[in-house]
Write a structure and sequence with these properties.
single chain, 68 residues, mainly alpha, 0% strand, rod-shaped
């Protein structure tokens, strides 16, 4: 009887640890995806800011050339 109890306890422990490691691995993958999404969002925002500054610079350059 004690061998069966030990066997069942061991199986329960193995399945519990497997479930924990799978959950942790899934969380890490999700975290990586979230980080990439945040970086892409930031990159797009910075690209828009750069385009706006380039447009202002071009407008300024055009207005100076018209005055000359």
């Amino acid at each position: 009887m004690s061998k069966i109890t030990l066997f069942l306890s061991t199986l329960f422990l193995i399945f519990s640890l497997t479930a924990c490691s799978s959950k942790t691995q899934t969380d890490v993958v999700d975290s990586g995806s979230k980080d990439v999404s945040d970086l892409l969002r930031t990159l797009i925002q910075k690209e828009k800011e750069i385009n706006e500054l380039n447009q202002k610079l071009e407008n300024c350059s055009n207005s100076k050339s018209k005055k000359i």
